[in-house]
């Protein structure tokens, strides 16, 4: 493992001779080198990882080639072999420490191997693993009551499953059974899962297999994206940071971009839906895989009214945005100022344990009584014990408040980077749900070339910070860390990103 000073030294060496860029573009000719900024030191961590004793890196590569299906695509040219985690930190097989800014894809909500969650799981493992819900066991009941208490309005009926895709499958089934309608609306650029049912909801071509029937009854509507979409202005988003697009909106007119996108939605009701009837509409409260895209303020509330007026229900996909991540609310939909009819949740709910849920009104839940519906593992004792402990930790450690404070600081630091680096086209998000879009041209918002994006991303990793990526072109850095990170971590991550951009800017790729 690199010592702290060696790590800082390495980071400095990587920057030596590189120009600190201000307004030049990535493709401009290199100017004379100036002293780079100093990489801030990797923050302290008093945890010592276990020594790695597993198969060699080469053996892992061999097993992967022989026995792991090709859909499992690792990140990075030289993929990491991670064997230990502690809170916001990950350790590779050589003992090197990384600041995890992606949390296992927005899943590790309260911290890797959080001691309280570990203890709860250990206690449950020693008590009862599994019965399936053919018998009563206490944990699912305790947990359902606690989770329901977090939900507003009539959202009090909970059905536990094991993954986000399963939760969205079930929500689709409920919407169709409850309303008697078939059609479901989602946004282009949405990600709602990979099961054959939810693959139809997902509207990113990169994530779709050419299967007949996947799109049966699904309408993908125009994404109300204030940065990349047809319309968008300087005050559309519910975020401390806005796009650099101009707009003519005034307090009297409200958000004009939102109104234009809403008209597009109305067109779909007018032209595409059978007699304008709909079973439901899904929306992530902030799009995750699509690159942390936020909708114009007020759009979702109006869309939900339109859906309900035409027979449907509104489903909030909180798989990434739930459990305090967006900071000012526990659920992302609360920022849209409405109560959905069905809420789906996964990922952060279990801090990495396979656990997911659908929460709806008793009336909509009754639709599941029309036939037998069963899920072997859903809400099993171990998952329920973990879910309860995660809720405890979020409350005890005030992680929602931390997401707001640290996330806002993060966003502001990143907005400063946007002033310095032309290739940062947009910074957006709320709390610890952040996106940084890299572009080759600020005016056209064209994506930065893939080799440059990948090189910056990999360089950050080599300097000790793991970011995620998203967006259709993979050019949005996704920052969704465990919610326990600190401002010191943020400073390190932002300095690292700046240094990586500086380094890559002067490389010919
Ligand atoms: C918003 C959203 N919904 C649903 C899913 C599907 O979840 P899972 O991979 O657990 O099936 C994902 C996964 O990334 C997601 O981001």
Characterization of the model:
This protein is of the alpha/beta class. It folds into 2 domains: 179 residues, Aspartate Aminotransferase, domain 1, CATH 3.90.1150; 280 residues, 3-Layer(aba) Sandwich (Aspartate Aminotransferase, domain 2). It has 14 helices and 16 strands. The strands form 3 sheets. Strands 4-10-9-8-7-5-6 form a 7-stranded mixed sheet, sandwiched between helices. Strand 5, helix 7 and strand 6 form a beta-alpha-beta unit. The N terminus is likely disordered. The structure holds pyridoxal-5'-phosphate (PLP). Pyridoxal-5'-phosphate binds next to helix 6.
What's the Cα radius of gyration?
23 Å
General form:
globular
- Overall average pLDDT: 92
Which regions have little confidence, pLDDT < 50, spanning 5+ residues?
1-25, 27-36
What count of structural domains? 2
CATH architecture term of the largest domain = 3-Layer(aba) Sandwich
Strand order of the largest sheet: 4-10-9-8-7-5-6
Question: How would a crystallographer describe the biggest sheet?
Answer: 7 strands, mixed
* Beta-strand percent range: 5-15%
Backbone structural class:
alpha/beta
Distance from N terminus to C terminus (CA atoms, Å) equals 30 Å
CATH class of the largest domain: Alpha Beta
Topology order in helix (H) and strand (E) letters = HHEEEHHHEHEHEHEHEEEHHHEEEHEEEH
